[in-house]
Structures are given as C-alpha cells and as structure tokens.
Amino acid sequence: MTVINEQSRITLFFELRLEDGHVVDSNFDKTPATFTFGDGSLLPDFESVLLGLAVGEQREFIMTPEKAFGAHNPSNVQRIPRSQFAMDLEEGMVVSFADSAKNELPGVIREIDEHNVTVDFNHPLAGHALTYKIEIVAVEAA
Predict the structure, then answer these.
(1) Domain count for the chain
(2) Residues 57 and 95 in one domain
(3) How far apart are alpha carbons 8 and 35 in whole angstroms?
C-alpha cells in the first residue's frame, strides 16, 4: 500500500470549517484536489498531517491560527484617505493594492466614512482556528 511521503502526488477531498462550524470551503461534492507534496500550494503544517496516510483514510484535525494563516495583526489595518480611491467602494469589497516592491496586496474594505477608508490587509482567515476534514483519494509518485 502506497502511503504519502515527501515525493507524493496526492488527490484528496477536503473541508475547511471555522470555529463556529461554518464551512469556508469544501470539495466533497465536487472534483477532488490534486497537488504535489511540497509544491507550495498547501500550508506546510497541513502537509505534515498527511504524511503516512494511504488511499481511503480520513482525518479531521484543527490548525491554530499560528499554524494556519497567522494571528490577526491590528497594524495590518490601515486608514487611507478616501480621495485616494477612484472607484465606488463597498464594505466587504476586496481591492488590489501594490506594496513598495510593486507586489499585489489584496485588502478588504472594512469601513467607509466621509474622509477615510479602513482597509484590512490581514488574510481573511487570519486569527481563526481551522478544522480540516480530509479523505485521501489517490497517492502516486510525483
């Protein structure tokens, strides 16, 4: 029986839930996801849970914010003058910004007032413990 190792190509079903049970993402009713171990598409701590699993195995595990998308950092919430936006804005909208190195940096519009826009540059899942449910569909050599 082939088990997952650092040279595996893995196909799996997954479900991602917040602390309150809200399902953020799931592919159990869709096509399973395929990735190569260590290719950067998954969090390293998520991948480490998969080591040694075989086809048909299921697991449920919790990742703390520090092991998932980090703690919510208040310094990543910025107030920007409304005059710097040339578009119509709505709370909850994701807007793309450029950092000093010209890399794309998404921010979520949290609040809009007459003079300022509050933008949250934290990952939307930062600060949340996440529960993952997985089922291994296939394991092959990468």
Answers:
(1) 2
(2) no
(3) 9
